[in-house]
Write the structure tokens for this entry.
Amino acid sequence: MKKTIDNILQQFIDDAMFLNNYLKVENLSNPDYDAKLTVKIGKRIEKNATYIIQNDGTEQFLKLLDHANIAVASFAAEYLYPLYPSKCIGIIKKYAKSIKNPLDRKREEDLIDGLENDKIFFTGHFKTIYGKDDYKSLSRE
């Protein structure tokens, strides 16, 4: 069966919601916690976001920025940042403020800092995803 953009978007949403819950600090000490699973799901999120963007699904993907679940919107914002940097940073900041645990919030604050200060660890994958050396030139704002 050929994957459609809609199927891949739904997988992205499901994975984002799963990781949002699974990666909470209180779960990390759970004996059932599986770090390999988080890596697997994280790689699938990256792969799916890349596929969507590279296969004419960007306009559909942009709709996730308005998703009812702020975590889903924030996960999408991480990948759509080159297109709408101000809007995406705003979404990630809103998500960070919604997180009660300071350690969980720190992860999002680090992401915000990394994007705003163009730290390669947080922005290096944009070149691969968008196929452009200068991701900042993609801004639609």
Q: What stands out?
A: Residues 70 and 94 are 8 Å apart (CA to CA). The radius of gyration is 15 Å.
